[in-house]
């Protein structure tokens, strides 16, 4: 919208504007005054090097903000030079810097009906940000209200023509975007193929050759600038004559990486030799058409077309090319797929131009030379204490946030003039959400269930319906977007498509039904108001990765993702860390009807095992509620695809998400995912097969290689510590299910167990021989250093006959001989804290628990209470005044520990664990396939189609 048009619009609508409704705030009370604030010290270190990478002391945050959230905001978003008076030190300063800029722009551009409405808008926006109800994308926090250019967008789409000037300009524009810490995508299909002639008579280089130069440029900028990785997306149409070369480009480079690694070069992500490999700075995607996918189904031919004339210059077998796409994705996770006809069928501006590309994470899809401003809502904030979803408040917050997002375009700066013009004329926005996985679990819905998908569909429909409703209302006040008139019919057609999709949602319970009713009414208003006023925004919604801002909002899950794992790594304010069972788990168990005693036992099992399989008292039909992205019951590939399909019809853009497959997945499995993604109406899809990429470090250590091969090989092996000739032993007779036996356990001088003998069955019998062999195997392993805890974890709860009653008062029932033997060994040779976490107690301890509520005796309990109090005090605050009350989070933890229901969910983390990803490695016994953070050295975790660091908030490409 031009300045002239804006001025006329403002004059014509004088004294009109939005009436802002109060949602959370109280008249006459500033939102800051309703919060208890505490001061903290933020010190970040690279745990591998010990180097302090950031330090700012005495920062101010609400007492309910976690250590992680406050640390990430302090390090990432506070502006001003460290150690100076201009450095921000309080969340209040950060929020005021952003919110007051929005309020001023809203006033200047005629958005508010009165000054009172502007003040309510300011207070509501402030309250929602402080209470982690939503967050803007990172560029807003970086730039708004500073002397830097007011860039508010994280997502950019560029364009390139078939000329050297345009190609060189592509390199230049990408470079400026990377320098600012953002990413961009573009489609190279206009560039002539290597099979076509130039006007001079020579043969064209083809787009893949120019990708090499762009990749080198991105790699240079990322190594010299503030960001460690340039995020970019490169798209090529499936009918481009160079499509096979494009498809196989990164797979060939992956083969090179493997060869160089085997030759002794450092090829880990960030390794000194990885820079010699090409095409590693971009995500590649093939833009497939319906015609191509139908040819794949039919097994027919498909024509590759010249770029200038459009004539078919080569006929290929569609299935063969599809097979190459799937094989390359199997080998190295590239290329992804974008479904061109589906994307453009939902395009609101076809009269202006087709959608040809996306941003690097594939959620923003719009016109060339455009950008998108993102924000995400924290879904768990709308779940009431009675486990119902507050749809009315959710809709009001969406309308509040979309208003703020649109205002930002009025004052925003852009990296190129062309991007600025398109964004101002079409005003693309991308409101979305985070914490869907946590919401589903908390309400007792499995991520792969019909109920989970129904709830996701209803929420997404309400999200976009409410956004477009407010967009139509804004159009009636400050005018529709400049490109609306020429695209009005197409825009309204897409709105009707959304409404039809909403009508097809089948709700399964009261919660779904309530949200769906609000969504239905919102879409009715969209069509009515849109017909009258038009729309302020060409696009309204996407589902972004929400990596860094997800941590800012203390979300358990990012974007549309399921929960990463049931056990999380948590930092403490005073230093140190804890591993905790996700607090959504006990809430879900209560929702499913379990009693406190059952919840305690299940949570205890999860704390020990990391999963719910064989959890005591947990019904098998409830297992699916606790399925996660990783672990023993990981979400199936099609579970991810179907969840995306449930949300996609209600989004203006697409979904940033990677469909994870196990290492054992086949090329055919990936082909099925790609085919079903097309049939289910997705706009884009990326897959990742575990351990398919060499450049993802799988361990903490880096390989060290000398320049020349070294013949000497150093082999590290465990050393056996034999028992002394004379050692103390204890023999226990036992009976399990009427069958009798003897257990002899021998110890070192330190009383550590080093040998067992198990006598069961007649001498010379097969059973006796097996028991002797088993005893020797366990004894040798104990002497080589295998902890007794490992055997107790593996063999307790093992079920086989004989089983039943025993003659041991401490172990009254046993599910097998092994179950009894290792429970007895745990009681005799393991400390109280360790075996208590495993649920193994003596008869006296169980009786004490019934009388006092604690298994520990009075002396132990006093010491334990001091330990817990110390941890919780540290957990609460380190530098806060003595008068500051404990946070709600700490109070809840304290209450859980006091009642005994949360004891297993909170325990000190191992010194080798520095993130939730590493915690999962500990439980699974295998490395997580994710890169290390180059800032703080911790293992990152997936967020959409990117990775995000839990320790410092750094991402692998998305803001």
Give a description of the structure.
The protein is 42% helix and 14% strand. By secondary structure, the protein is of the alpha/beta class. Among the domains are: 3-145 and 357-548, no CATH class; 159-345, Alpha-Beta Barrel (Anaerobic Ribonucleotide-triphosphate Reductase Large Chain); 730-841, no CATH class. Strands 3, 4, 5, 6, 7, 10, 11, 12, 15 and 16 form a 10-stranded mixed beta sheet that branches. Strand 8 (301-305) and strand 9 form a beta hairpin. It is globular, with a radius of gyration of 30 Å. It starts with a helix and ends in an 11-residue tail after the last strand.
Number of strands: 24
User: What is the assembly state of the chains in this entry?
Assistant: single chain
| Count of DSSP H/I helices | 30
Shape: globular
Overall average pLDDT: 85
Contiguous uncertain segments of 5+ residues? 1-15, 223-228, 696-715, 863-904
The radius of gyration is 30 Å
Tell me the structural class: alpha/beta
State the share of residues found in helices, binned by percent.
40-55%
Main beta sheet: strand number and arrangement? 10 strands, mixed
Secondary structure: elements and pairs:
Layout: H1 3-12, E1 37-45, E2 52-62, H2 67-76, H3 91-108, H4 115-130, E3 134-136, H5 138-143, E4 155-157, H6 164-179, E5 183-187, H7 207-224, E6 232-237, H8 243-262, E7 283-288, H9 290-298, E8 301-305, E9 312-317, H10 318-332, E10 336-339, H11 340-345, E11 370-378, H12 391-411, H13 417-426, E12 429-434, H14 436-442, H15 450-478, H16 484-503, H17 510-533, H18 547-552, E13 567-571, E14 577-581, H19 584-591, H20 596-609, H21 637-647, E15 658-661, H22 667-679, E16 684-689, E17 728-736, E18 739-747, E19 753-759, H23 766-783, H24 788-795, E20 804-808, E21 811-814, H25 817-829, H26 832-837, H27 843-852, H28 858-876, H29 888-899, E22 906-908, H30 916-924, E23 941-943, E24 946-948
Parallel strand pairs: 4-5, 5-6, 6-7, 7-10, 11-12, 15-16
Antiparallel strand pairs: 1-2, 3-11, 4-11, 8-9, 10-16, 13-14, 14-22, 17-18, 18-19, 20-21, 23-24
Helix pairs in contact: 3-4, 3-12, 4-12, 6-7, 8-10, 9-10, 10-22, 12-15, 14-19, 15-17, 15-21, 16-17, 19-20, 24-25, 28-29
Keywords: Cobalamin, Cobalt, Disulfide bond, DNA synthesis, Nucleotide-binding, Oxidoreductase
GO biological process, one term: DNA biosynthetic process
Domain Ribonucleotide reductase large subunit C-terminal: 153-688
């Amino acid at each position: 919208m031009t300045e002239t048009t804006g001025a006329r619009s403002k004059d014509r609508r004088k004294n009109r504007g939005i009436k802002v409704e109060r949602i959370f705030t109280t008249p006459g009370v500033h939102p800051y005054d309703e919060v208890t604030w505490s001061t903290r010290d933020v010190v970040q270190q690279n745990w591998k090097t010990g180097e302090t990478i950031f330090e700012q002391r005495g920062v101010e945050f609400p007492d309910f903000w976690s250590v992680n959230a406050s640390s990430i905001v302090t390090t990432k978003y506070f502006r001003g030079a460290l150690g100076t008076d201009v450095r921000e030190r309080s969340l209040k300063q950060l929020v005021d810097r952003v919110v007051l800029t929005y309020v001023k722009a809203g006033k200047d551009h005629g958005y508010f009906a009165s000054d009172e409405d502007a003040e309510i808008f300011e207070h509501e926006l402030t309250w929602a940000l402080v209470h982690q109800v939503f967050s803007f994308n990172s560029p807003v926090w970086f730039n708004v209200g500073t002397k830097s250019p007011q860039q508010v967008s994280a997502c950019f789409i560029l364009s390139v023509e078939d000329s050297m000037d345009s190609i060189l300009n592509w390199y230049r524009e990408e470079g400026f975007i990377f320098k600012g810490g953002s990413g961009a995508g573009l489609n190279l299909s206009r560039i002539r193929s290597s099979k076509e002639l130039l006007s001079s008579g020579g043969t064209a280089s083809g787009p893949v050759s120019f990708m090499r130069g762009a990749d080198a440029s991105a790699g240079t900028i990322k190594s010299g600038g503030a960001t460690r990785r340039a995020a970019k997306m490169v798209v090529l149409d499936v009918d481009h004559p160079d499509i096979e070369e494009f498809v196989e480009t990164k797979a060939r480079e992956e083969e090179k990486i493997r060869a160089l690694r085997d030759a002794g070069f450092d090829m880990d992500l960030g390794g000194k030799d990885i820079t010699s490999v090409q095409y590693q700075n971009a995500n590649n995607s093939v833009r497939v058409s319906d015609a191509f996918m139908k040819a794949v189904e039919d097994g027919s031919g498909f024509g590759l077309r010249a770029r200038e004339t459009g004539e078919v210059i080569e006929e290929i077998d569609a299935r063969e090319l599809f097979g190459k796409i799937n094989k390359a994705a199997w080998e190295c996770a590239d290329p992804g797929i974008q479904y061109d006809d589906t994307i453009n069928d939902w395009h609101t501006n076809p009269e202006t131009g087709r959608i040809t590309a996306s941003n690097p994470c594939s959620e923003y899809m719009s016109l060339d030379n455009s950008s998108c401003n993102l924000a995400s809502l924290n879904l768990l904030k709308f779940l009431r204490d009675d486990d119902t979803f507050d749809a009315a408040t959710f809709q009001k917050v969406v309308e509040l946030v979309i208003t703020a997002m649109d205002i930002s375009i009025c004052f925003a700066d852009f990296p190129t003039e062309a991007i600025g013009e398109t964004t101002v004329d079409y005003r693309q926005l991308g409101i979305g959400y985070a914490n869907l996985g946590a919401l589903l679990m908390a309400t007792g819905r499995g991520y792969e269930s019909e109920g989970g998908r129904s709830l996701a569909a209803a929420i997404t429909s309400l999200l976009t319906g409410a956004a477009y409703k407010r967009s139509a209302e804004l159009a009636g006040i400050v005018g529709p977007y400049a490109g609306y008139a020429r695209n009005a019919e197409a825009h309204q057609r897409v709105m009707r498509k959304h409404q039809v999709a909403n009508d097809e949602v089948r709700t399964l319970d009261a919660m779904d039904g309530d949200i769906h009713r609000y969504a239905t009414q919102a879409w009715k208003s969209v069509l009515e108001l849109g017909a009258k006023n038009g729309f302020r925004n060409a696009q309204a919604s996407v589902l972004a990765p929400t990596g860094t801002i997800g941590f800012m909002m203390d979300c358990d899950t990012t974007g549309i993702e399921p929960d990463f794992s049931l056990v999380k790594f948590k930092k403490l304010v005073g230093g140190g860390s804890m591993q905790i069972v996700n607090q959504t788990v006990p809430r879900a168990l209560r929702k499913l009807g379990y009693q406190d005693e059952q919840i305690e036992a299940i949570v205890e099992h999860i704390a020990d095992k990391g999963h719910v399989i064989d959890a005591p008292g947990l019904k098998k039909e409830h297992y699916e509620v606790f399925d996660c992205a990783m672990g023993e019951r990981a979400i199936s590939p099609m579970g991810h695809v179907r969840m995306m399909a449930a949300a996609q019809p209600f989004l203006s853009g697409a979904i940033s998400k990677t469909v994870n497959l196990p290492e054992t997945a086949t090329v055919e499995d990936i082909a099925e995912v790609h085919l079903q993604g097309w049939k289910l109406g997705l706009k884009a899809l990326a897959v990742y097969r575990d351990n398919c990429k060499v450049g993802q470090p799988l361990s903490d250590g880096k390989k060290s290689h000398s320049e020349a091969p070294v013949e000497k090989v150093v082999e590290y092996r465990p050393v056996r510590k034999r028992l002394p000739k004379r050692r103390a032993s204890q023999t226990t007779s036992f009976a399990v299910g009427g069958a009798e036996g003897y257990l002899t356990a021998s110890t070192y001088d330190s009383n550590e167990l080093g040998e067992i003998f198990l006598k069961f069955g007649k001498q010379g019998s097969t059973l006796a021989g097996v028991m002797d062999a088993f005893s020797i195997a366990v004894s040798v392993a104990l002497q080589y250093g295998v902890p007794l805890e490992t055997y107790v974890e593996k063999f307790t709860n093992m079920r086989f006959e004989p089983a039943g009653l025993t003659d041991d008062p401490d172990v009254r029932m046993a599910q097998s001989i092994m179950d009894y033997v290792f429970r007895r060994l745990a009681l005799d040779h393991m400390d109280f804290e360790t075996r208590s976490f495993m649920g193994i107690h003596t008869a006296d301890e169980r009786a004490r628990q019934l009388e006092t509520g604690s298994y520990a005796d009075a002396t132990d309990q006093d010491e334990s209470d001091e330990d817990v109090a110390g941890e919780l005090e540290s957990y609460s605050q380190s530098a806060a005044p003595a008068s500051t009350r404990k946070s709600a989070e700490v109070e809840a933890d304290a209450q859980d520990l006091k009642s005994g229901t949360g004891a297993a969910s909170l325990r000190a983390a191992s010194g080798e664990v520095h993130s939730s990803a590493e915690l999962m490695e500990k439980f699974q016994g295998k490395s997580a396939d994710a890169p290390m953070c180059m800032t703080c050295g911790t293992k990152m975790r997936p967020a959409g189609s990117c990775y995000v660091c839990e320790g410092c908030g750094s991402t692998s490409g998305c803001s």
